[in-house]
Each structure stands twice: as structure tokens, then as C-alpha cells.
Specification:
With 764 residues, the chain is an alpha/beta fold. It contains 22 helices and 20 strands. A hairpin with a 4-residue loop joins strand 12 and strand 13. The two termini are 52 Å apart. Keywords: Membrane, Transmembrane, Transmembrane helix.
């Protein structure tokens, strides 16, 4: 029962109790008083009338006139004179007086007044006895009027007390409602503090709750900070703050070995079809990558050449230079460095949900051929990039000349330079995030997706590294060499690093502070120009005919039972044609600002799938749609029509996009979470510096990026990091799912670490 009902019930009970008691006491007292007054009146009237008659003659007419004078006033019920022998000399009796008093009230409160009697004398003789009885109906009328007055007074008092109580209750309910919202926020993993109310009892409760919230929030921040520190210790170089070799190789394996680098502004999962390559760099190649080189023949600083070269690696590694000691250095983040999220590519084909069919005519063969060329061109453009290797020459000699402190400062300056270059490349192409890393003491790597022109970046690095070399004076003249190679999806890491090592060796042979890039191979021709307007027509027809479908892949829980189905969008570029994978058209949809209609189509097909099946379903929304109020409200209105299905729908946004447009993502979590959907982040783990912003969003789940999952059963450092991540997420009620699991050993290790779900090529 609500407080307001309890209040009114209390007021009613108190009013009834007070009224009943007061009414009974008041009326009984008034009844007794009226009886006494009537009795005295009877006596007084009898004495007065007896005295008057005693002084007059005793003839019947005179006596009758005296009695009539008093009786006709209407206040008396009976007046009679009785002789000493009991004979009635005269008697007047008034008929019943009609009044508005109910009979039940008269019966409930009867008024019985004793009649007044007096002796009448005739000279010295006893003439008779006069008896006077006053009318009681008038007394009942007075008693009834008093009862009405009491009733009205108690009703008014009860209503006034109730209204005053409601006002006081509203004052109490306001801080109570705030405390309820605070408690609900805790269940949604949002930490809110409230102002302390003026009511002492509520103030103590609010103070205790606020203290608890602050402790929980501080604990979450501390855990996040510790996890961020652990993340940097495991995945970043402690001296330069760049990504370390293991982290870089995992990221590169995802991008090159079969994954995509989807657009961060409107990211969709790429479709299955190619398994992720697990091939690592061969020992011979690895030696060439990480080792330092000896002195080279003189050449003009900053010169570079870009010529075709074979993919085979030359045997034998140059003599290695010993890196400066790094063990005592603290991790220093490189400005602007962000790791690009990858896309998980399952091995097996997914289950397709057939779309609706329309009777539109089939395109001409020439048009289909043009579409295929456009698709190939876009896929080629999206799936390539440049890998740069930068080697600092004779690092041991530099350490001896400059000293350990200055050498470390030099390494930090080189790292900051490469981090700045990676950040600028990412800002130029928002669809991809570049990555800089330190592979060992003297070798650095720079990965720039979606780029064909290696010369521009190489010349920029040459100018800035040469300027850095001049700052050291005469101590360091031959500071660096740069090798660059173009990559495409499907390249093997061993062959790719062999070509990169060959490019670096060629640069070392070219001269001082030189660079060299290996051009595209015949099997990797440059992408032809694409008319983006043609894609606009393709999307227009696809939206009109609803040529979209979803491919489903399982996400299993700790016991191996299905947790939900992962949905990947497919599109038919032409009616009756093949189905395009998401990676073939999502980036184009972003450039055409069509992610909103595309996500609407995804949600509609997700609703159809939920209606026809029993499993939960996870879909990915682009951050551009999330940040677009119009389409986001349309999605919310559509899902609002299916509240029962919303509880089975998982909606996720890529980590890169979520932090890039964080306010829109915060509102997205609130809007879709209130509908009953589970909101989450996919490809999680690359931006731990922003992790504390997620505290209080009410996230339902996170999907940890595959770069942290690969080989987890053999990686003790990542095991420690992921175990702490799971504990922190579980403390906030967040479900943790791993992406990209390729083997049963990985799945078992992830479950042991505390993951709630696993997906990837190795999950059937």
C-alpha cells in the first residue's frame, strides 16, 4: 500500500475514532443537560401556575383560562389538575409536534424529563395538584442540530488534516523518490549521489547511501586504473609508450590474415568466408626484422627510391645492435596512438535468413559486370595498406655516445614522431586507425591501413627523423633507415615481413638515412577508380526491394550452451545475384551517409528473426546511426512496438565509434536500455585510457577484441589482464564475451579466466 493511501487511511481512522468518541460524549452530555433543564422548567412552570390559580376563584372557566395561557405557548406536552381524591379536574394534552429529527435518533437518544408538580390551595383548603410536562421534541431538535454541527466540524477537520498530511507527504516523497532513483541507478551500474534532505531520518539514510556510492565509484575507478596500468604493461613498450611486438603482431594478424579493417564511423561485422591465418614469422625472417644493421655505404640524407622487388627474403641477418636498457623505465603513452579494432571472420558459412522478394527486372549483364568491378575495387581499396619498418642504426654506439638518459629521450622522440604520424593518418582517413609499435630495441613499425602512397609517409618520416638526427649534433649522423611494403588481406605474415625486411635491407644499402618501398606485385594491382554514384543507385534499389538478409553465428556460454546468435548483414547488389559480405559495402554506405537506412533494415530483419526463433540475437549499429537523432528515434520507435522481443535483442557499437562520439553513445545506452535491450561494446580493449568513462552507463555486455584472445592459453600476461578485466566487469554487472576464439584450448582458457561467452572461427 502506498504512503498516500496509508496516510488517508490513518486520517479516516483517526477522524472516525475522534468523531465517534466526541460525538457520543457530547450528545450524552447534552442529553443529560436537556433532561435536567426540562425537569427544572416543569417544576418552575407548575409552581408558577399553582400560585396563580391559588389566588383566583376556582371556577372551571378561570382555571381553564390560566392553563390555556401557558399551554398555548406550545412548549408543553401535558398540563393537568387533579383533585385530592384523584379526580381530574382539568387537563390539556398537545398533539405530536412534527420536527425534522429522524425517529432513529429519537430512539437512540431519548429525553425523559420528570414532570413538575405543585399544590393548589383554596384559602386554607387543599384544592388539588397541578402537573406540568414540557415538550421533549424540541429538545431532540436541539440535540440533532448539535450532532450535525459536530459531524461537519469533524469532517472539515479530517479533510484539513488529510490535505496537510498530503503536503507533508509530498515533501517526504520528493527525497524518497530521489533515493529510489539512486537505488535504481545502482542496479543499472550508474553511480549517482543525491543532495541530503532536511528531514533528519532521511538525511542519515541519504548520507549513508552517498558514502556507499562514493566508495563503489572510487573502487571502480581504482580497479579501472589498475587494469589500465596492467594493459599498458602487457601491451605497450615501457620506454616509448608504443605498442609492443606481441600486441602489434596480433593486430596485424587480424588485419592481414583474413580480417577486415572496417569503418570506425559506421562499422559492421565482415562476413565469414576466410579463416584467420595463424602463421607467424619464420625464425629467419624474424631475425631480419628485429636485428640492427651494420654501417652502409654513404648516400645523401633523406633520399629514397621506390622500385619493384621480389618477395623472397635474403638469407642471413645483419649483425644485431644491443638495445639500451629498458627495465627501469616507466611506460610513457605516445600521443595520439590508438589501436584499430578488427573484424572477426568465422570459418564456416552462417545460416542465411531469406529476405523478401520483389518482381523487379534483372539488371543487364554489362551493369552486373560494372557492379562486380565496383565491388572488387572497393574491397581492394579497403583491404590494403602500408607497413613501415623503421630501424635506428647502431643503437649501442648511440647509447655509448649520448648516455642512457639521452638515448631513452631519443627513443621517446622517435616514438612520439611515429605516434603523431599514425594519428595524422587516422584523422585523414576516419574509417581506419593506424598503429605504431616498437618491435625491439632499435626497430619500430608503423601500420597505416587504406593507403597506397608509401612515398608521402616515408618522405614525412625522413624529414622529421633527419631533423631529429641534426639535434644530436655530430654524435649521430646515420640515424635510421625505413622500409615499406604494401599489404592486402590474405597476405601471410612470414612473406609480408620478408618483403618488409627486404625493403629495409635495400634502404640500408642505398645510403645514410634512406628509405625504400616495395611496389605492388602483379597479383596485387592498384584499385581502379570507382564511381560512387553507381553505388548510390545500388543501395537505392536494394532498400526498395529489401535485398538484405542476416547470417547467424553462435555465441556460446561457459557451459557451451548458446548465449545468443551473432547477426551479420548481407546485401544483394543485383536481384538474383550473389550476397555481398558486410565488408564489401558498409564503408561505402558510410561515405554515402546511408548507415541509417541500412541499420533500419538490419533491425527489421532482426525482429523477424526473433519472431520466428527462440534464441537471443545480437546486432551491430554504426556510430553514425547512433549519433543521428532522426534514425535513432526511428529505431527506438520501431523497437518500442515489440517490448517482448527487446528483452532478447543485444545491440552493440564498436569501441572506436563509442568513444569518438561518447555523448551520443551515452544517450544510446539510456534510450535502448529503457526499451529492455541489452547494450554493449564490441572490439573492446584498445582504448583503456577512456575506460573510466563507461562507469555508470549501464552497459549490458562487452565483447573483447580478438587481438587479446589469440593464443590466450599460452599467454600468461594477457591471461592476467583478461582475468582482471572480467572481475572488474562482473563487479559492475557487465557480461564479458571473447571474440575470435580459434581453438578449443582458447575457449577453455577463456572460460577459466571468467568469460561469460565465446565466439569465433573455432566455435561451432
Amino acid at each position: 500500500m502506498s504512503l498516500s493511501r496509508q496516510l488517508w487511511l490513518t486520517v479516516i481512522l483517526v477522524t472516525l475514532t475522534s468523531f465517534t468518541g466526541g460525538f457520543a460524549i457530547s450528545l450524552l452530555s447534552t442529553q443529560s443537560y436537556l433532561e435536567q433543564q426540562l425537569h427544572r422548567k416543569n417544576i418552575d412552570s407548575a409552581n408558577s401556575l399553582a400560585h396563580s390559580i391559588s389566588q383566583l376563584s376556582k371556577d372551571p372557566v378561570t382555571i381553564g383560562l390560566q392553563i390555556a395561557a401557558l399551554f398555548d405557548s406550545g412548549q408543553y406536552e401535558t398540563i393537568s389538575i387533579t383533585s385530592p381524591d384523584g379526580r381530574v379536574i382539568t387537563e390539556r394534552v398537545q398533539d405530536r409536534v412534527d420536527i425534522t429529527v429522524p425517529e432513529w435518533f429519537v430512539d437512540l437518544f431519548p429525553i425523559r424529563a420528570e414532570p413538575g408538580q405543585a399544590q393548589i390551595s383554596d384559602s386554607w383548603m387543599h384544592f388539588g395538584v397541578i402537573k406540568v410536562v414540557s415538550q421533549t421534541r424540541l429538545a431532540h431538535l436541539a440535540l440533532w442540530n448539535q450532532a450535525e454541527t459536530l459531524l461537519l466540524w469533524f469532517l472539515a477537520a479530517g479533510l484539513s488534516c488529510g490535505l496537510i498530511g498530503m503536503l507533508m507527504l509530498q515533501r517526504i516523497k520528493k527525497p524518497l523518490s530521489t533515493m529510489v532513483e539512486q537505488a535504481e541507478a545502482i542496479t543499472e551500474r550508474r553511480f549517482l549521489t543525491i543532495s541530503e534532505p532536511r528531514i533528519p531520518e532521511l538525511r542519515s539514510i541519504a548520507r549513508a547511501t552517498n558514502d556507499m556510492i562514493r566508495r563503489l565509484h572510487n573502487r571502480a575507478i581504482e580497479e579501472t586504473a589498475r587494469l589500465e596500468t596492467l594493459h599498458k604493461q602487457i601491451n605497450y613498450d615501457p620506454v616509448t609508450g608504443l605498442a609492443n611486438r606481441e600486441y602489434f603482431m596480433n593486430r596485424l594478424a587480424e588485419i592481414v590474415g583474413g580480417g577486415d579493417t572496417p569503418d570506425h564511423a559506421g562499422e559492421k561485422e565482415a562476413a565469414p568466408g576466410t579463416s584467420i591465418s595463424g602463421e607467424d614469422v619464420t625464425p629467419g625472417v624474424s631475425a631480419r626484422v628485429v636485428a640492427g644493421s651494420g654501417d652502409e655505404a654513404p648516400a645523401a640524407p633523406g633520399t629514397g627510391s621506390e622500385v619493384a622487388a621480389t618477395a623472397s627474403a635474403t638469407e642471413g641477418a645483419s649483425t644485431g645492435a644491443t638495445a639500451a636498457s629498458e627495465g627501469d623505465e616507466a611506460a610513457i603513452p605516445a600521443e595520439g596512438i590508438e589501436a584499430a579494432p578488427e573484424v572477426i571472420i568465422p570459418v564456416e558459412r552462417g545460416q542465411l535468413i531469406a529476405p523478401n522478394e520483389n518482381g523487379k527486372a534483372v539488371a543487364e549483364p554489362d551493369q552486373e559486370e560494372a557492379v562486380r568491378e565496383h565491388i572488387a575495387a572497393e574491397a581492394s581499396k579497403r583491404q590494403n595498406g602500408i607497413l613501415f619498418l623503421v630501424r635506428l642504426n647502431n643503437l649501442q654506439e648511440i647509447n655509448q655516445k649520448l648516455g642512457r638518459t639521452e638515448t631513452n629521450n631519443l627513443l621517446r622522440q622517435v616514438a612520439a614522431l611515429m605516434g603523431k604520424t599514425a594519428a595524422e593518418a587516422s584523422s585523414d582517413n576516419e574509417s581506419s586507425a593506424s598503429l605504431a609499435a616498437r618491435l625491439n630495441g632499435s626497430d619500430f613499425a608503423l601500420l597505416i591501413p587504406d593507403m597506397d602512397d608509401a612515398g608521402r609517409i616515408a618522405n614525412q618520416l625522413t624529414r622529421e627523423l633527419t631533423a631529429l638526427s641534426l639535434q644530436t649534433g655530430e654524435a649521430v649522423k646515420d640515424l635510421y633507415h625505413i622500409g615499406a611494403v604494401r599489404y592486402q588481406r590474405g597476405d601471410k605474415l612470414g612473406e609480408l615481413f620478408a618483403k618488409a625486411d627486404l625493403a629495409l635491407s635495400t634502404a640500408e644499402q642505398t645510403g645514410v638515412n634512406a628509405w625504400h618501398a616495395i611496389a605492388a606485385q602483379p597479383g596485387h594491382p592498384p584499385a581502379p577508380a570507382v564511381n560512387i554514384g553507381d553505388w548510390r543507385h545500388i543501395f537505392k534499389d536494394a532498400f526498395a526491394e529489401d535485398r538484405f538478409t542476416l547470417a547467424l553465428y553462435p555465441v556460446v556460454g561457459r557451459s557451451g550452451a548458446p548465449l545468443h546468435q551473432e547477426a551479420f548483414v548481407r546485401m544483394q547488389a543485383q536481384r538474383n545475384g550473389g550476397w555481398l559480405e558486410a565488408g564489401d559495402f558498409v564503408n561505402i554506405a558510410v561515405r554515402l551517409s546511408l548507415t541509417g537506412p541500412l541499420d533500419m533494415a538490419v533491425i527489421r530483419h532482426a525482429i523477424e528473426s526473433l519472431q520466428s526463433g527462440t534464441d537471443d540475437l545480437a546486432v551491430n549499429l554504426s556510430i553514425e546511426t547512433v549519433a543521428n537523432w532522426e534514425f535513432r528515434n526511428k529505431l527506438a520507435a520501431l523497437l518500442g512496438q515489440f517490448p517482448d522481443l527487446c528483452r532478447r535483442l543485444w545491440i552493440e557499437v564498436p569501441e572506436y565509434g563509442a568513444f569518438r562520439k561518447f555523448e551520443a553513445f551515452r544517450d544510446f545506452c539510456h534510450t535502448f536500455g529503457s526499451l529492455g535491450c541489452r547494450t554493449g561494446i564490441e572490439h573492446f580493449g584498445h582504448q583503456f585510457s577512456e575506460l573510466r568513462q563507461l562507469t555508470g552507463l549501464g552497459l549490458g555486455y562487452i565483447k573483447v577484441d580478438a587481438a587479446f584472445v589469440h593464443g590466450i592459453h599460452q599467454n600468461k600476461n594477457n591471461q592476467r589482464f583478461l582475468k582482471n578485466l572480467c572481475r572488474l566487469a562482473h563487479d559492475q554487472g557487465v557480461v564479458v564475451i571473447a571474440l575470435g576464439a580459434q581453438a578449443e584450448a582458447e575457449r577453455k582458457a577463456l572460460v577459466k579466466l571468467g568469460f561469460d561467452g565465446v565466439t569465433g572461427p573455432g566455435i561451432r
